């Protein structure tokens, strides 16, 4: 019996050492879809290079979902827009993300280097849901300019949105992080100008909550190695 207890203690100590040395454990990250599809994948690949025993869970969704995941403690950290966040959350800025229009290459507006925002007046849009931060930002900009955007079809995923634009249902307003998927699908992308519209992207954590070693090291990796080329995400991209 004593030997069995000692074996159990050795196993427990080994597990605790592995967790402290970041060789075991899990990290739960909640991110807006434009980040989950691009930058986050590369960061996770770097992180797991020498942490094969750490399991990484990614929850992707809308801005509000990310906020709630972190506030409720479901996620260790979140990557989302930080222009307006709850005071219970700490923010680490990563850079700005500009809004673009994605449209078929044969669309009349595709010949312009940048699309003045007023040009979207009266055009049919394929959009994310009403609670989407990107849609709310675009609607607010339109209201300030004295018109309303025409959201003809709403979808919940960027992949679906892109397929609807390809099918000719309408054009779409997307953040810079969604451009690689749109361009690889054969769509054109143009930045919104006059005015240009962008929002700050960053990492959020629950204030006064201590992160586990695996989550803490993942946050350090993001802070140190977030691609400098993406500090101004999607700026000037054209196809």
Automatic annotation (TrEMBL):
GO terms for biological process: regulation of DNA-templated transcription. The keyword DNA-binding applies. Residues 21-226 form the LysR substrate-binding domain. Gene3D superfamilies: 3.40.190.290. Transmembrane segments: none annotated. The lineage of its organism: Bacteria, Pseudomonadati, Pseudomonadota, Betaproteobacteria, Burkholderiales. Pfam families: LysR_substrate (PF03466). InterPro entries: HTH-type_LysR_regulators, LysR_subst-bd. This is DNA-binding transcriptional LysR family regulator. It comes from the Bacteria. Keywords: DNA-binding. GO terms for molecular function: DNA binding. The keyword Oxidoreductase does not apply. One of its GO terms (cellular component) is cytosol.
